[in-house]
Amino acid sequence: MSAIADALRAEMLGYDTCLLSDALERLHLPHGISGIRPLAAGRRIFGPAVTVKLESFRGDLSKENLAKQHLGTSAIAAAMPGDIIVVEHHARSDCAGWGGLLSLAAKARGLGGVIVDGLARDVDECVDMDFPLFARGATPITARGRVMETATNGLVMIGAVPLRPHDFVLADANGVVILPQDRIDDIVGEARRLHNFENSIRAAVAAGTPIGEAMNESYETALKTQG
Description:
Layout: H1 3-12, H2 17-26, E1 37-40, E2 45-56, H3 73-78, E3 84-88, H4 100-108, E4 113-117, E5 119-120, H5 123-129, E6 133-135, E7 137-138, E8 147-152, E9 156-158, E10 161-163, E11 168-172, E12 175-179, H6 184-206, H7 211-220
Parallel strand pairs: 2-3, 3-4, 4-6, 5-7
Antiparallel strand pairs: 1-6, 2-8, 2-11, 9-10, 11-12
Helix pairs in contact: 2-6, 4-5
């Protein structure tokens, strides 16, 4: 990993999804995905995305029709240390789109975590191995015979937000933000400005300024942009 990538990750992990959502809104970009929560190792994660798209299993369960590889395995093989696997799992709500053996393999490759837009399983295993897992909920029900991977490292939709391979993602207890790779410099600049602005309010409150006075009208207009 380059020094630039290390520095970017260190800086972005200092910001939460709320601040980055505000930065995205100032740039007229999709500004956050709600409902995806940490299920295991609930620390903030940030990194480039490796994407997985799941769809309902098509065909019968004969040996000839079964997938030659289990879902997620190609993404793990393609990912680099620090990458985040992000799974679009919209097709069915009655089964997991990620499981414990996949998490074990992802951790062994040094990946930063997994985000599932849907359900996941084997949460206890992820807790035990301290591997970050974010999802909309948990279930014990397997993906086998129910959903299949139809694309690795293609365009996916997370919530209503498009995510392309190598776009950046940040997830924490508030939700998920997607940071398009081609706008990362703009996003970082806005995040720094907003971070400094909020820190000025915190400093004023710590010095005894009433919160209403410290926030004043500048807080309400902080997300307005020119044009």
